[in-house]
Amino acid sequence: MSDLAPGHSPSTDNGTIPQSSPATGLPSPAPSLSPGAPAEGGACPPPLQWQEVLQEVTAGAIHWTVDVPGSQLTGLTLGEGPPLIFLNSLGEPRELSFLLAWLLRDQFRCVLFDWRGVKTPQSGPVTLDRLVSDLFEIADHWPGEPNRLLASGLGGLVGLRALHDRPRQFTQLTLVAGYAHRQLTRTERGLARLGRWLPGPVRRLPGWQGMQRHSHRRFFPPFDETRFEFYLDRTGRMPIAPLCELAGLIATTNLTPLLPKIANPVLLVQTEGQPDSLRQASAELARGLPSVTVEELHNTGLVPGLTHPHRIAKLIRAAAGG
User: What is the spatial order of strands in the sheet that 266-271 belongs to?
Assistant: First the structure.
């Protein structure tokens, strides 16, 4: 079902997000972490060492918590500039976006968080309205500033609703392998229905690791065997029950009628590795949006922010006009 790093950095626990997240608090990056290297069309960018980035982001970002009705949100803010809010896919913790946030920290204030109930208890049912309200709660900490969104999977549903409901606050959405409506398979529907009562992390599910290797392994850099192991470790820790509840939300959501009313620009990124059903759903989404640009990324898989972060960073900068 693939739709904090250990550390002792100071956190803000008073229910508010800091008004700024200065990048100057970060140690000077090593050459392998340079954000200014060309992504394509020039010299090959230096590889990102995820272990170093993880340490730098954990130490240098501002960590925060926000109390919301029925749960608590936990996240971090990294960088300077206009807010860029990351909206995760199902089953993908915020740590998977650290490489991408590191590359973008000089152009954007990157805001990363985990869905309600995933890392903190959740009372009451999870609905799309609640997830969108959570996004509004976070974005309202920068009043008057237009927010850009980077989303995939489940996060795309939240992002599309946000663009529809608050077009002045959320000015642009980059959507990786997105959809407005997705039909789950019979197995996925069964797991979404029954799995919400299963204890433990998803790595306990029979066949989970084999499915991840089959779907994602070939897209990870061959020169860094540990990056895929990092992916398995962090996704494998995710709890079964809340993820299955969120999967049920996906199964019952259809935003297709809203698409013609979303006038703000959407960058829809298609990636190699999408199953046919997801590619068809993305194509339907592209047909329904009035202002959409479609880009194709080859050899990246469904988590390009982890497998090829320089390439997706280049698209995000271009969409922002930078």
Answer: 11-12, 62-68, 71-78, 109-113, 83-87, 147-152, 170-176, 266-271, 292-297
